[in-house]
């Protein structure tokens, strides 16, 4: 797939998702699409404890710090609802699909997988202590909710890929051949995610315009800061990987928490974040040069 057709597919998915909010009823398929994409990625990626570096700990600490910074900034901008919306954007751990995007960008997938596991498990473990500070109530079930999601969506395809490589080592050569299939699944996921966000936003059309603009603007600022700070943390060697790990967020989790503990208006923050980080992902993929074609036989 060339650069033009890839860009057209991305833009079409975003536009169609925005115009067809009824497709939100198929949002259950997103998890399975991501699992399939991760399975393909893990066929050629071996994750180990040595993949976790000091920079991952810095990423995790920054993830927590930016959550509180966003909360404080939100109070300055517009009060409690803006603060909570910004907080749920900033505190969100690395997205399940971040390793998939990095594989498309031909970066170090194991680096992002390590960031994903560390931030998701770490944030889940600390949220029962953090949420009472911003909400005033305990949330002990947060860890179990995230751990169950991580276990199903990440470790199942990781284990299946490991088992297949063990039985048939040649499977490690499949991912480059399945790149277009993976991209098609990601575009489909983007369509469903955008449709889900469109449905959510249309369902809360009675939200005052000023409040909606403040929440959307705050989530955009948090998104820009996340990707930018992540690039600084990654340095020259892992700039793209760290930027993706800190910027692409597991918003499904925090939308759930925001709806459960803070209400639908606050949940608009991470919902808007879905749009911003997918637009940035689309731009990155648009700029990515296609892989060079393999040399012809006999050349």
**Largest sheet report:** none
Q: Gyration radius, to the nearest Å?
A: 19 Å
Which class best fits the helix and strand makeup? mainly alpha
- Reading the helices and strands in chain order gives HHHHHHHHHHHH
Share of residues in helices: over 70%
List the uncertain runs. 293-299
**CATH architecture term:** Up-down Bundle
- Domain module count: 1
Report the β-strand fraction as a percent range.
under 5%
In whole angstroms, how far apart are the ends?
23 Å
Beta strand count: 0
Oligomer: single chain
Concise summary:
The protein is mainly α and 299 residues long. The protein is 77% helix and 0% strand. The protein has a single domain, classed as Na+/H+ antiporter like fold (Up-down Bundle), CATH 1.20.1530.20.
Topology, please?
Elements (H helix, E strand, L loop, with lengths): L2 H17 L9 H14 L11 H25 L1 H12 L6 H7 L4 H27 L6 H26 L6 H4 L1 H25 L5 H39 L3 H11 L2 H24 L12
Helix pairs in contact: 1-9, 1-12, 2-7, 2-9, 3-4, 3-6, 3-10, 4-10, 4-11, 4-12, 5-6, 5-10, 6-7, 6-10, 9-12, 10-12, 11-12
Brief descriptors of the model:
299 residues, 12 helices, Na+/H+ antiporter like fold, mainly alpha, single chain, globular
Question: Explain this structure to me?
Answer:
The protein has twelve helices and no strands. The chain is an all-alpha fold. Helix 2 (29-42) packs antiparallel against helix 9. The protein is globular. Mean pLDDT is 82; it is low at 293-299.
